[in-house]
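task queued by scheduler; priority normal; single chain, no ligands, no partner chains; default sampling; output format set to structure tokens
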Amino acid sequence: MNLTRFLILKRFHFLFLLFLLPFLLPAQSNTDFWFAAPEITSGHGDQPIYFRLTSFSQTANVTISEPANTMANFPPIMVTILANSTFTVDLTSRKSKVECTPPNTTLNLGLLIHSTVPITAYYEEAHMNNPEIFTLKGKNAMGTSFFIPSQ
């Protein structure tokens, strides 16, 4: 095989992989997400807090619950997200039942977001002085070793 043909074939494989890669890596869309909300410094403002949920081509029925915490009186939140739209769930009134405090303590405050079809989700602390956004990864974040991008 001559060098020119080899380089063309190599370039073809690269382009094929480049176009195929987005279909192999579904990013953060999923039907189940687990999240433990951190306690954010209240001195700079730490509310309102939201879940932002986005559907794709199908209507999604979503349930947000706290399965391990039977003592917190956290009734499940059930919402319907129309196809190709975003829905905001305001968790501010449940902040004491959602945020993991005190620090360095094992708690049972993990939130489960379950959807009937794949969605994307993120948690947002939306105070203008101290905003934070946490993108939820679903099964892509399962494991024992991962990096958290932050300041």
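post-processing summary
- The chain is about 15% helix and 35% strand.
- Residues 74 and 94 are 8 Å apart (CA to CA).
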